[in-house]
Amino acid sequence: MPKGQGIRRRNTKHYLDELLCAHQHCHEIREEDLKDLVSRILAHYQEYYDEKSRVAQRDIFLLFSPIWLTSLEHTLWISSFKPSLTFQLITNSVDGLSKDQIRRIDRSDEVLAEWKLALGTVLANVDELRTNAVLAMVEIMRPTQSIRFLAAAAQLQLRIRTLGLQREAETPESSGNEHVFL
């Protein structure tokens, strides 16, 4: 997946543009239209989390180190080292494993599979918590305030994205997918 083409990123640009425009002109827009915009944006975010959930069911680790994020965005992400990489490193770089070592590694791999399922549940719970927090705040605020809040969140996301892309453009050898091994 190329940079800038993450989960629903193409459609997100449209919603962010509409949101930022509404933010600039919210005092001129009817309250009913603002409510409609807030509903559509929240529906878009729900689509995003639904898509994210589908991706998580296919490859939970992809969401813990998404390939479409810039290196700056990765610094804000939850993790930079996929545990499954351990097994790939062993398979590709370690010779002379005994039968007992291979058996024990395979047993660890089974534990990892269970852990992946648990991570999927954690991710779904975090997304639900995030969504519920936003919905609760939107319920408390007037539509104009909701637009300002959602616009501020969108502007932050866009600034981080822009800074990350600028940083990577300045250092072309950086692919944004480096992992720190400790």
UniProtKB/TrEMBL annotation:
* Start and end residues of each DOG1 domain: 1-182
One biological process term from GO is: DNA-templated transcription
Q: Its domain of life? A: Eukaryota
A GO molecular-function descriptor: sequence-specific DNA binding
Protein's name according to its UniProt entry: DOG1 domain-containing protein
